[in-house]
Design a protein that fits this description.
Znf_SWIM; extended; nucleic acid binding
């Protein structure tokens, strides 16, 4: 917890980890803001929320009714479904709310969002124009039934063990059915399939790739080159020995000349010492 507020502890028990991090960041930043009342009517109260020590930017928060319904000009709640720092600032300092209102907790951000049945999936008794034999429809119907069965199985150990044994038995029976169907399967070929295959083959023969369009611009092979591009670069030549392949910095003749110069200087120095 980053704040001592009770509302943060309630949000940690309700929201998922990612949603709670967003809410916690907004609640922590609400401490940086101050709220002052701008207008008061019989139906609503309007507050101006700004950062401490600053006058801009100014956000207007309107409390309606008993003070648990609020709207802000930043519209974070309308866009994300999580209360903004400006409303939380007014809730904590003006409305004195120590709990998170239930109507401000969306089910899709809670930890129990996946445990509930999905209402958008059609049930078995609903008339749907989609064919029943499609894999998606069969999967949806099975998932709706499994939600209720899993919920019952989680109530006790006996129910869970019974559900596990029954599930393993059904799994083995379905695998045996697949093996039996693959061995005895005979695929009939009707006239509709023959006509469909002929149409597909004719379509593939008539429809070809579109003609290739050359790219825009002058081709690189026809570009007139600058005379400097066609000139043959001269090889570097040593200024000491006049040979190619190296320069005077790494010339072997220069190194020998330096050694001879050092030896001659040593010999001259020794002769001078002897004369002395």
């Amino acid at each position: 917890m980053k704040t001592p507020f009770k509302i943060e502890e309630e949000a940690a028990l309700v929201y998922t980890r990612k949603s709670f991090i967003i809410f916690q960041e907004e609640l922590f930043n609400s401490l940086r803001y101050q709220a002052r009342r701008l207008s008061l009517t019989s139906e609503a109260k309007t507050y101006g929320v700004t950062v401490h020590g600053k006058e801009t930017p100014l956000y207007h928060v309107i409390l309606e009714g008993s003070g648990e319904h609020a709207t802000c000009t930043c519209h974070m709640w309308e866009f994300m479904g999580i209360l903004c720092r400006h409303i939380l600032c007014v809730f904590g300092k003006k409305a004195k709310l120590n709990r998170l209102p239930e109507h401000y907790v969306l089910d899709r951000w809670t930890i129990n969002a996946k445990s509930r049945p999905i209402p958008h999936i059609p049930c078995c008794d609903v008339q749907v124009s989609v064919e029943v034999d499609e894999p998606t429809m069969r999967r949806s119907k099975s998932m709706i039934q499994l939600y209720d069965i899993v919920e019952l199985a989680s109530q006790s150990v006996e129910k869970h063990n019974h559900f596990t044994l029954a599930l393993e038995k059904v799994h083995k029976e379905m695998l045996a059915m697949d093996e039996h169907v693959e061995c005895s399967r005979v695929v009939p070929v009707n006239d509709d399939q023959i006509v469909r295959s002929q149409v597909v083959s004719n379509f593939s023969q008539t429809v070809q790739d579109p003609p290739r369009v050359p790219t825009k611009g002058r081709p690189k092979s026809l570009r007139a080159k600058n005379p400097k591009e066609t000139q043959i670069t001269k090889k570097r030549r040593c200024s000491i020995c006049k040979n190619e392949g190296h320069v005077k910095n790494n010339c072997p003749s220069a190194s020998r000349m330096r050694k001879l110069k050092v030896l001659s200087q040593r010999g001259a120095a020794e002769e001078g010492i002897r004369e002395v």
